[in-house]
Design a protein that fits this description.
The complex is a heterodimer of chains A (248) and B (267). Chain A is of the alpha/beta class and 248 residues long. Chain A contains 9 helices and 8 strands. In chain A, helix 3 runs parallel beside helix 5. Chain B has 267 residues and is an alpha/beta fold. Chain B has a single domain, classed as TIM Barrel, CATH 3.20.20.140. Classes of the chains: A alpha/beta (248), B alpha/beta (267).
């Protein structure tokens, strides 16, 4: 299994236990997860987000087979494109995460860095939110980003793959082929939204994500387990699709 | 990892909902999906209600909504009914509680955000609940985002429950969904030291922040914690398992505490 939705680093608004890389490694492996894409939460708050990427590269150095690094960048900050190139080509990062509501820029300002992500053949992860907006600290965004913003990016950059995390969508909607969904917010046993979504967009477009260490991994594991899909589909959503997306 | 709550715990999800179909009757297919989903996760009984988020709910409407709950109870013995009323209409609400609890065997009362739980307007409801020996399950949260604050200006939080426990000491109160959205730590900080045997809190809601259930158990005591999902089935079971409960804790949370509440029924 591969987890597309893991974070390390300090969250300033509440203590998050088990956030260090060694702790995450043990925690995820305890559930049979054999790899994870990880971002550095510090990258949400540093002015110079590249410092968070350098921290992350150092932290995961001892786990090259397990963790895949995701760059956190503010496209409106100095040297964002240069930083992305450095992260991918020198540090081996395999995805970019954009959080416009935290870094307070318009998505239009992200065009150059998104285009570069496409040239580097890495997906762009766009979280709907980091934690549920109804418990927001006064310094946090007042509302989630919303699926529409990501759909707009998909249309504008058809050659770039986008992964929507911490969000939901109508399971029977029409979605562009460059949009991928992380599953932790979709219902499974009751109503079968996750099954329907997989039938609709394909198991290779729905990715297992736990949200650890912010969230307990058990819920996402239960969602995948109780989903009415074939073994092959479960393998894809459970990890093969994410690996294929990251290791292009 | 276990994938369902083992049968020995006789798990009841005491906070969930049924819906109405286009024909105005119970949406039976959704009700069946709820039963099937619960079965997969080892949930044996499901507490259901049909509340309204409107500011004022006319008696004719809340009676119709409760009729759908009656239909669900007739559809399956696994459904445990909760009666929704609006305290704006105290006489009609008391009569409706009597109808639902005494005649139809519902297990409790469900209130929404028409008033804070500690508001004097709740007194007729609370008195009736105490008389019948059934609990009041109250929609609750401490939301900090502007949209929810504007939409739910009378959303009860733990402070309101503490006041209600003093004002209505004979009534059993259940604070809904510690994971229903909002600053759950704020609620738990308010509840530190609570010793009332009439206070309970359910773990439902889509929020599965790491540590939420363990912190709830440690703060209010395991004897006051109730399993529930409020339609977020995997989230409910997942966060309960993540708390690594002991066998005794799991027994109390899944059914023991609810059975204690149900044992106080007077009718």
């Amino acid at each position: 299994m591969f987890d597309i939705h893991v974070s390390t680093g300090h969250w300033p608004f509440r203590p998050i236990p088990g956030q260090s890389i060694p702790e995450l490694y043990e925690y995820l492996r305890g559930f049979g997860i054999s790899g994870a894409a990880v971002t550095n939460t510090n990258g949400l708050f540093y002015l110079n987000t590249q410092a968070a990427n350098l921290e992350l590269a150092e932290a995961i150095k001892a786990y090259p087979e397990f963790f895949v690094a995701v760059a956190s960048l503010n496209p409106a900050y100095a040297a964002a494109e240069r930083d992305l190139e450095f992260c991918v080509e020198k540090l081996g990062f395999r995805a970019l995460r954009l959080t416009p509501l935290y870094h307070q820029y318009a998505l239009a300002e992200a065009s150059a860095v998104i285009r570069l992500a496409g040239e580097l053949a890495i997906p762009v992860i766009v979280p709907n939110e980091i934690v549920n907006f109804r418990q927001k600290h006064w310094m946090e965004p007042s509302a989630p980003l919303g699926l529409e913003a990501v759909l707009g990016l998909c249309r504008e950059f058809p050659g770039v793959n986008f992964i929507f995390t911490e969000g939901t969508a109508a399971p029977d909607g029409a979605y562009p082929p460059n949009l991928y969904f992380e599953l932790s917010r979709f219902r499974s046993s009751y109503g079968g939204a996750l099954t329907e979504l997989i039938r609709n967009v394909g198991a290779d477009h729905v990715l297992f994500g736990s949200g650890a260490p912010f969230k307990a991994a058990e819920s996402s594991l239960l969602k995948l387990f109780h989903c009415d899909i074939t073994d092959e589909e479960r393998r894809l959503t459970g990890g093969d699709a994410a690996r294929a997306l990251l290791y292009r | 990892m276990i994938t369902k709550i083992p049968d020995e715990f006789c798990c009841i999800d005491m906070h969930n909902h049924i819906s109405q179909g286009p024909d105005g009757k119970l949406n039976r297919s959704m009700a069946q999906e709820l039963l099937d989903g619960a079965t997969r996760l080892g949930i044996q009984r499901i507490g259901v209600s049909r509340p309204s988020t409107e500011e004022t709910v006319e008696p004719s409407k809340f009676r119709r909504m409760n009729d759908r709950v009656v239909e669900a109870m007739e559809m399956s013995e696994r459904f445990v009914g909760f009666c929704f009323v609006d305290p704006h209409f105290p006489d009609e609400a008391a009569a409706e509680i009597e109808r639902c609890v005494v005649r139809h065997g519902m297990a409790g009362i469900k209130l929404y955000h028409q008033f804070f739980i500690c508001d004097d307007a709740q007194k007729p409801i609370m008195d009736k609940a105490a008389e019948l020996g059934v609990p009041v399950l109250m929609h609750a949260g401490k939301c900090t985002d502007p949209a929810t604050i504007a939409a739910q200006p009378r959303l009860s939080h733990a402070g309101h429950f503490l006041e209600a426990l003093k004002k209505f000491p004979a009534t059993m109160l259940i604070q809904a969904h510690i994971g229903g959205g909002g600053d759950w730590e704020w609620n738990l900080r308010m509840l530190e030291g609570i010793d009332s045997d009439h206070y309970f809190i359910d773990i439902s809601g889509s929020v599965i922040d790491a540590g939420i259930v363990r912190r709830t158990i440690e703060t209010v005591g395991v004897d006051r914690v109730l399993f529930a999902t409020d339609m977020s089935l995997e989230e409910g079971v997942g966060k309960l398992l993540a708390a690594r409960p002991s066998h005794e804790e799991l027994m109390k949370i899944c059914s023991g505490n609810w059975n204690r509440i149900a044992g106080r029924r007077r009718v």
